[in-house]
Design a protein that fits this description.
By secondary structure, this protein is mostly beta strands. The chain is built from no helices and eleven strands. It is about 0% helix and about 50% strand.
Length: about 120
């Protein structure tokens, strides 16, 4: 049985600039076809706009307020919101609140740097 506590998951920076803690993926468990990570965007911060050619993502916001853009549509998001991001859709996330914006990110297939394509400088 694979059980990972967030306190034991080391933080790293993804290609889009997010700070994540990968909870479960093929790198640390028997899971092979998806990944689950805790992601954090600091107050006033944002990710770089990017897309994934293979992975679809689900963002589930657990703390804070922000704004997300997927292709040409922009929406405000807050704790309790879930957002679907299909493969190939450009997306960017901003923290517009006064606390760290935190979310769970599920990717299928698993998150990989090689499947992340930055679309802004």
């Amino acid at each position: 049985m694979d059980v990972v506590n967030i306190a034991d998951a080391p933080a790293f920076i993804t290609k889009d600039g997010s700070e994540i803690r990968e909870l479960l993926a093929h790198r640390n468990s028997e899971i092979k076809n998806q990944s689950l990570a805790d992601a954090r965007v600091p107050v006033g911060g944002s990710t770089m706009e990017h897309f994934h050619s293979k992975s679809e993502e689900i963002y589930y916001f657990t703390h804070g307020h922000g704004r997300i853009r997927i292709d040409e549509e922009t929406r405000d998001v807050k704790a309790g919101d879930a957002v679907a991001i299909p493969p190939g859709k450009k997306h960017k996330l901003w923290n517009t609140g006064d606390e760290v914006l935190r979310l769970l990110c599920c990717c299928a297939p698993c998150y990989e740097h090689s499947d992340t394509f930055i679309t802004e400088e």
